[in-house]
Specification:
Blueprint lengths: L7 H16 L44 E5 H6 L5 H6 L2 H4 L32 E5 L2 E2 L22 E7 L4 H4 L6 E7 L5 E11 L6 E12 L2 E12 L2 E2 L4 H4 L5 E3 L2 E2 L20 E6 L11 E7 L9 E3 L16 E3 L2 E12 L8 E21 L19 H4 L6 H7 L5 E29 L2 E21 L1 H8 L30 H6 L4 H7 E26 L2 E19 L2 H4 L8 E2 L2 E22 L3 E15 L3 E13 L4 E12 L3 H5 L3 E5 L1 H4 L18 H9 L13 E5 L8 E12 L6 E18 L4 H6 L13 E3 L5 E5 L2 E21 L4 E17 L7 E2 L9 E11 L2 E10 L2 E2 L19 E2 L2 E2 L2 E11 L3 E8 L17 E2 L2 E2 L5 H5 L2 E9 L1
Parallel strand pairs: 2-5, 28-32
Antiparallel strand pairs: 1-4, 2-3, 4-5, 6-7, 6-45, 7-8, 8-16, 9-15, 10-11, 10-39, 12-13, 12-18, 13-14, 16-17, 17-18, 18-19, 19-20, 20-21, 21-23, 22-27, 23-24, 24-25, 25-26, 26-29, 27-28, 29-30, 30-33, 31-32, 33-34, 34-35, 34-36, 36-37, 37-41, 38-40, 41-42, 42-45, 43-44
Length: 991
């Protein structure tokens, strides 16, 4: 069964409209498909042969069977893009899905916080291969999930261009090239000294970035040497820098009228700013749960006496404020400091017969950090002497009149109240990652053949830390076991308490309302947990290329090679994490493992027909194959077939079909069980499943209602009493992923017109996909048509109180994932008397993005969801006259909509706004960039404005299926909108 069927007629009309607008300069676009070869590379009509991304065969022809997007350093600079992550993540092959960048400050991501990665076609960074000058770049980061390449390691100041191969290429480049390949090409034969300085300043403050780089190059009789140094810093953007981050609101509506709760302290809509604190929840029992029970709660705070409790006042919801000035310092964009060194050299000693020795040395150091505010809400047993509402101290009935009277409670053995103070504490995390890569090789010619062999070794070492509260000390300091809320032996600081035990008193006005902890509590309960990660990779590879023989249509080109690779990971989390002794935070064990790969590969390019008019100017067949043998999962063979048909000088047809093979990454195999906690409300769809809105309509989908009822859960079920524990670990029984990728397209290049157009249809299907299912398994179970036999339903357990107790979110193979769409690329260049006009257009339409998690399950279509726009595009227009150039860029992200999918109906079940609607969709979003450039004899300048019109991202409501950053969708397409209007300047001086 396929949800959300697609109307082909409507989409083809839309495709035609966007394409027509692009050709006349009316639609957004960027980059180029068929671009002039950059100045530091051979021109296409020169005899020197070059290697194009997507093939290992040297050729004079750069129009290949596979679609390749080229992004030059000059064009990205004109758009104000200063880092590799900004450049690559804004390409439409990536922008059609959310990317990991420095906005993910409070999330667990592959490679750890502060990392930036590239995911082509939305298939994940682990399926997108990144190369540097055609050779694999190493993973970098911190934590047990290091595997993707960190784009922070790319020496951007020395990059000539980025080439993005937009189809699968495992047979050419090996594992990971499932969704495509990014090949970073550095500058070659650079002479002299060049110094660059650039800055990007935001109009509203926060998020500023600065770059300073120097490049030196020198040729000598037998070789060449280049050295590049770069320093980069991006300042933090914090919540207080932007209104939308400082005051995230619900954005609820009833009958078209705003229905958000009002903050009594401001008279405005309530802000939910990075934590809620300042009161105590008190709970009373009604039925047993592990020796205790919860019936209801009251929020109280130090104040005038009410309800007969001296010194404490009840706070009804409408009188609570959820805004706290401390939340204004929470990190929205992680600050990053980066220092890079890149050395590139070639040497041709006399004794090697013309062979060339070459080397690349890369070293990068990245420092990043995040600051946030988290809730600290320990439980205090009703008999704990640290609980001011314990047995005999509080007139229980006065708190909640519907509770049994005191005598009844006493008979039940619960004459007191469980207390649950909620306070905020500052959480600081930092990452210090050093990565180096040393590569040495030899290349040359042997008769009619060319050879290339190299060895590379890389290592990433990372230290990371985070604020931690020591869990066992909380147990003893409250006299309460925080897992089951039972009384600790001996009560507060009782038998077995760690030395120096200090009672955890959070019930003072200074702590609850001002967040001030006593020094004794700070010293005893709070600490920093520090871990370290090391990832090493060694590669030995050799290849030869040349012509095998000649056919009537021309020589048969070939390439053959062997490759050996070894990867090792060793992640040692901090001691508190390893012993699972951190309160309320994710914990993990040591992740250690290795894998070795042996491969052989071959590629042939066969000229079939040449100069047979009027239909065939040139027809070539490209065939490649690779055999891969992993120690971990065994062996497999991949292949790729491409057809490149030049009908004439105006029209070319191209097509490819191939398979890919991805072995599990080390972290997918060896990740030691990590555990964390999520609230019941965030994981359990059966909470209050019987609720209805003001009009009587259900607030849950019919499928969820039926399945929760079938599971015997009460319609007014209020959820479990403690957080759900999430376990994620590696899967040593994982199978390798396999995939198929198909492209078909045409290239239109009418001579003497300056116009070029490429349209490419593509489809990628991944089978036995490796994925961590995450906490969504509970929702998937209760949304399933085949409940309760759906396999999701076996991955979690409910506790005695009915709440979700544990969830198994480990890595496992899921049946399939498939995505398909169309890429549109166009270029136009025309010389006028006043100067030269150039236009580059790029757009991607995602037709489907399908996923099936278990055999026989529903096939879900994620296309068009928030963060997965159906359309993305960019148009860059340049006008050059002599040494001057003006550039105008328009960026486009299409509308998205979650309503009607995955149970999302845009209606809230929050008790104070039952039946209210909220916005679970986004409108189309544009941003504009304008720059001016002058290139003098020895110096140059680029200055401009990014997000010229200060366009804010679309606002979304606080729903169940949309991740938010403030009031905006959390997705990389809106990165420029988070920052707002920016002014950038780049100065270049050559000596």
């Amino acid at each position: 069964m396929l949800t959300n069927p697609v109307s082909l007629t409507r989409k083809w009309l839309l495709a035609g409209t966007v394409l027509t607008g692009a050709l006349f300069g009316l639609a957004p676009a960027h980059a180029q498909e068929v671009a002039p070869v950059p100045a530091d590379e051979p021109a296409a009509d020169e005899p020197t042969e070059i290697v194009i991304t997507g093939s290992r065969i040297r050729s004079k022809e750069y129009t290949s069977a596979s679609p390749v997007t080229i992004i030059t350093a000059e064009k990205s600079s004109a758009a104000g893009l200063m880092s590799a992550s900004e450049i690559l993540q804004s390409s439409t092959a990536a922008a059609s899905s959310g990317q990991i960048n420095n906005t993910f400050t409070g999330y667990v991501v592959g490679g750890g916080a502060g990392i930036s990665t590239i995911s082509l076609r939305g298939l994940g960074a682990q399926r997108s291969l990144v190369l540097l000058n055609g050779r694999r770049m190493p993973p970098a980061g911190v934590g047990g999930t290091v595997g993707p390449v960190d784009l922070n390691t790319i020496p951007n100041s020395f990059v000539a261009r980025y080439e993005i191969l937009k189809d699968g290429a495992s047979s050419i480049y090996g594992s990971d090239a499932v969704a495509g390949v990014v090949n970073v090409i550095t500058r070659s034969n650079f002479e002299g000294l060049q110094v660059d300085g650039s800055t990007n300043i935001t109009e509203q403050g926060g998020g500023e970035s600065y770059t300073l780089s120097g490049i030196w190059g020198k040729s000598f009789d037998q070789g060449h040497l280049s050295v590049a140094l770069e320093g980069y810093e991006q300042k933090a953007l914090v919540a207080g820098d932007r209104d939308a981050f400082a005051c995230p609101t619900d954005n609820y509506y009833i009958n078209g009228q705003r229905a958000d709760a009002i903050d009594p302290t401001t008279g405005k809509y309530k802000c939910y700013t990075h934590g809620v604190e300042g009161y105590v929840g008190t709970y009373g029992p009604i039925e047993a749960f592990g020796g205790l029970a919860f019936y209801g709660s009251r929020a109280i705070t130090p104040g005038a006496t009410t309800d007969g409790v001296p010194g404490w006042a009840f706070i009804p919801y409408e009188r609570r404020s959820f805004s706290d000035p401390r939340g204004m310092s929470a990190t929205i964009l992680s600050p990053v400091k980066r220092a890079s060194l890149f050395v590139q050299g070639e040497y041709r000693p006399a004794g090697l017969g013309g062979a060339e020795l070459y080397t690349e040395i890369m070293a990068t150091k990245r420092e990043s950090e995040q600051v946030g505010w988290a809730q600290f809400f320990p439980y205090y047993h009703e008999q704990s002497t640290a609980n001011p509402f314990r047995v005999g101290t509080a007139p229980v009935r006065s708190f909640i009149p519907s509770w049994p009277n005191n005598a009844t409670l006493a008979q039940l053995g619960y004459p007191g109240l469980i207390a649950n103070p909620i306070v905020l504490y500052r959480v600081a995390a930092d990452q210090d990652v050093s990565t180096y890569r040393v590569l040495g090789g030899v290349r040359g010619d042997w008769g009619n053949w060319s050879y290339d062999a190299y060895v590379s070794h890389s290592k990433s070492t990372g230290d990371y830390s985070t604020t931690a509260i020591i869990k066992d000390r909380v147990d003893y300091g409250t006299g309460t076991n925080q897992l089951d809320i039972s009384l600790m032996p001996g009560g507060v600081c009782g038998t077995g308490a760690p030395a120096g035990c200090v009672p955890l008193n959070l019930f003072t006005k200074e702590t609850l309302e001002d967040g001030v902890f006593s020094q004794a509590i700070l010293d005893y309960y709070f600490t920093t947990d520090r871990g370290s990660t090391e990832y090493t990779q060694t590669i030995v590879e050799g290849s030869i290329t040349g012509d095998l023989f000649t056919l009537p249509a021309g020589p048969v080109g070939s390439a053959f090679g062997i490759s050996l690779r070894k990867d090792e990971i060793n992640d040692v989390p901090g001691p508190l994490s390893r012993t699972q002794n951190i309160w309320g935070r994710t914990t993990a064990g040591i992740t250690a493992g290795e894998d070795t790969l042996k491969e052989v590969y071959a590629e042939l390019e066969v000229p079939l027909i040449q100069n047979v008019t009027p239909f065939v100017k040139d027809l070539k067949l490209n065939v490649s194959a690779r055999y891969s043998d992993y120690d971990s999962v065994g062996s497999d063979t991949t292949y790729k077939v491409g057809l490149n048909w030049a009908v004439d000088d105006r029209f070319r047809i191209r097509a490819t079909h191939g398979t890919s093979f991805r072995a599990p990454a080390l972290y997918e195999l060896y990740l030691k069980d990590q555990s964390g906690f999520l609230s019941q409300a965030s994981v359990d769809p059966c909470i209050n499943w019987g609720a209805t809105g003001e009009g009587g309509q259900p607030v849950k989908s019919q499928q969820v209602r039926e399945n929760c009822a079938a599971d015997g859960i009460d319609p007014d079920f209020s959820g479990g009493s403690s957080s759900a524990e999430i376990f994620t670990g590696g899967g040593l029984d994982l199978k390798p992923e396999t995939s198929q990728a198909t492209t078909f397209g045409f290239v239109l290049t009418p001579p003497e017109t300056g116009f070029k157009l490429a349209v490419d249809f593509w489809k990628i299907k991944v089978e036995e996909q490796i994925s961590a299912s995450g906490s969504a398994v509970v929702g998937a179970c209760y949304s399933a048509f085949d409940f309760p036999t759906n396999r999701f339903c076996s991955l979690f357990e409910r506790g005695p109180d009915g709440g979700i107790a544990t969830i198994d979110a480990s890595y496992r193979n899921i049946p399939s994932q498939e995505t398909k769409g169309i890429d549109f690329t166009a270029n136009y260049e025309k010389e006028f008397n006043l100067g030269t006009l150039s236009m580059d257009f790029e757009a991607t339409w995602i037709k489907e993005y399908l996923s099936q998690l278990f055999p026989g399950d529903v096939v879900y279509d994620y296309q068009g969801l928030v963060g997965e726009p159906e359309w993305t595009g960019r148009l860059q227009t340049r006008f050059s006259r002599n040494d001057w150039r003006v550039t105008y860029t328009v960026n486009y992200t299409g509308p998205t909509n979650n309503v009607g999918r995955f149970g999302e109906d845009g209606v809230t079940d929050v008790f104070y706004a039952l039946g209210a609607s909220y916005k679970a969709w986004t409108e189309a979003w544009y941003s504009h960039d304008l720059s001016f450039q002058y290139n003098g004899k020895n110096w140059g300048v680029i200055t401009g404005i990014s997000n010229l019109l200060d366009e804010e991202p679309p606002v979304v409501g606080a729903g169940d299926t949309v991740s938010r950053l403030g009031n905006y969708p959390l997705s990389s397409q809106y990165y420029e909108g988070y920052l707002g209007r920016q002014f950038f300047l780049r100065l270049t001086k050559t000596f």
